[in-house]
Amino acid sequence: MRRRTRSDRAESKASEKFRAVLDPNTALSMYNKKNRSYCVVRKDLAKNYDIEVDASEAPVLNKVLSDPDPYESSMAEIKILEEEVFPINDAIKKVFGDSKDLQLNSIKLAIGGSKTDYVTIDQTDLIKFDVKPTLTGLMNFIEENQESILGFLDCDYINEEGNVIYLSCGKKNLSENIYTIKLKILASMQQRGFFLQQEHKYYGLQLYLTIESKIPNDDKLLELLKELEIDWELIFFRRRLAIHDWTEIECERDSENLKSYLRAKFESLNYFDVNNITRLVIKNNLAFIVADKMASLLHKMKSERTFQLQEKKFQKPSFSGDDYPGDEYSITLKKAEIAAAAKLACAYLGIQKEIKFDRDISDAEVIKYQEELTNI
Fold first, then answer.
1. What pLDDT digit, counting tens, does each position of 53-88 carry?
2. How far apart are CA 341 and CA 373, in angstroms?
3. Residues in Cβ contact with 151 at an 8 Å cutoff, skipping those fewer than 6 apart
């Protein structure tokens, strides 16, 4: 029962959420939970691009529409697609292959001679002929008709979310671990006051790239972030270093925190293992990094012993009582094994310190287990 509780607790601790601000216009959020990881990259388009706003026919048209239109018609610059969207599409195809083209779900283009003289077309004009529009196809169409394409307009209004959609595209099952990639340009009505105050604009266009994956550190995901010039190594390094430093302070201040940390990080170490490790750490006034290294060595040793036991069971159904019995969690480490790990951890970390341990532990035993730990 206790092991099941530990497992459930570990699952809840697997969730993680953090945000990284990359530059004045770009931010990233990651949310990890069991079997799912979400990476959301947001780029603020309001600072560098203009948007034209006009009154729409919604006051009358919404009486007959099932999905209401915004009461304002807004047009974004076409260079947003050329400078911000199409490079992302190129990066996706470079990482996943040319066949992984993003499907175009929503866009409305303005075709005409000026911003006061145009008509609109959207993806439904192709879909009604069973033609599936793609982001690459849109890119080629814009390249060949630059003079007549004036911009792209709001094409969907999601009333429940308060979002005005200007572009929506995506692709499923890009690789073994990447479930979906979604690319959107939208303006949030919830943030309208902010952009009115900061940018003096009625609509603050934002680009969102959402990547849903099986694991947070998938190679393809990291490769895509690198193609987008996002320094994911620096992001992870900063977080890992800061979390480690804070954890170190709390664990050195309170031994109960150290016990909790070791139990959470090294699942093979049971209650008595953790208590004995902590006792030796306190007795010798060892630093947190030594305790962490000790636990890591002992965890590897218990795991290796369990693996060898399973091999013996497979080769020979019965085994003598001298063999390593049970599983890695239920077997408690000997004091000599913990003392050996302490000596070895100090040596690995370059710390000159004589380890004091109980008198009933022989030096020969400690040396024997040091050799075992060294050979793992």
1. 899 998 999 899 888 888 889 999 999 999 999 999
2. 7
3. 52, 75, 76, 77, 78, 109, 110, 115
